[in-house]
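Hey, resending since the last one bounced:
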Amino acid sequence: MTKQAIPLQSPHTDDASGAPVHAPVRTHSEQAPEPGRRALIVGGAAMASGALLGAPAVLAQAKPFSGVTLNVSCWSARYPTLLAEYVNEFTEVTGAKVNYDTPGFQVYNQRADLELSTKGAGYDVLNITFIFTNRWIGNGWLTPLDPYLNDPRKAGPDYDFADFLPGAVAPLKDAKGVVYGVPWVTDSSMIIATRSDLLQAAGLGMPDTFDELERAASLVHKKDGVDGFLTDNHWGFWYPPMLHAYGGEIFRNAPDDLMPTLNTPEAIAAAEQLARIVGKFGPPGAVGMAYGQTQELLRAGKANLSMVTHVGGMSHAEPEAKVAKTLRFAMTPRGPKGRFPGIASHGWGIPVGSKNKEAAWEFIKWSTSKRLINRMVKEKFLGSVTRRSIYETPDYRKLITVNGQDTGQIVLDTIKFGEQGHMKYRTVPVYPQVNVQINQAISRIVSGQMSARESMNQAQTSIIADFRRAGVKT
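The structure tokens again:
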């Protein structure tokens, strides 16, 4: 397995997000505290049984993949991090050993992009990261899964691929509708107040606009010693909802016209407001805080309002969280031009260079089965599932009801906004380069290195230069 990590189109950073080396960034769609690079080679577990895999025909023989070692990797989101606790069961049933790796988001994407681009055999199962779907699928670097899904012997009687939410599967298909990945999360942005009691004491409800968010953060800042606002430093995810809300766009008309538009009046105003909220109402150093750091502070009640994903927010509802009883959710705020929440799907895929495709498919099928996902929901409080049969059950909706608030309805309402098509910017092949520049631009503004106008002009100029060097038509 390759272990190299290289910058993606940016000579100034070591990751696709644009974060500085000392402040690794995590993305959004289901999240867990950053464990760093976690690798384990797992074998047997007495608790496993053949039923775990739905007893497909290919597993009729005892341990059909004995002697096979699968290399599996995903960034350290909540689901893949929790999955590590179950992988022994797959080995017990199939005989296949699993090298299971969950590095941070930017390191994972560097590693996976390099391996896939060379069509190497270093990995057998990889996460298809949302912002790379077009690049990885479009270049033929992943294995079509239709031959497995459409073969009853390989799919098995209980897998039921039609049970996956269509909106979760759609980004993992090519232009012809061929499936290349099985989704394990479709997550959506929203806001939370970990100390909603402080908002209530100030006579405030949950903010519905970005102006209301800024005002609320100002009014509760330092009340009871709690910072008014904090979110992680993946500005490439948190900035676009504000940009769109003020009528701006990342590109002039993606995917057909990829001229960046990050220095328009709307883009500058959105960047200025985001930087103001982060800089004025967050703790010292907020601009450089990665996901794990911000989650720890929010969970401990040291910061109040935040932009999060559903999975990230739900982690603060766990009984051991200090803020569990004062946690409140709301949809991503709107602006003058509407509401444009961030939505992202991630899924398991098989690299075209894998030498163990049959065993890799069994791992994907096992890890996304109804049986295992149901267990993870019940045992680990897993949120943002992608199976309709689980999502629509009263028990699941009860599980994700927090302090009397049905957070599942917020998720469904948010995903509905995806029909506007505003997320199409994020899956064009060149977006990772733009993501780098957005992260750097917002960081410069919050830290006071540049004004919003100066920083966004620099981002615009840098992106155009990157595109021209790469031969991208604008």
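The mean pLDDT is 87.

Sorry for the duplicate.
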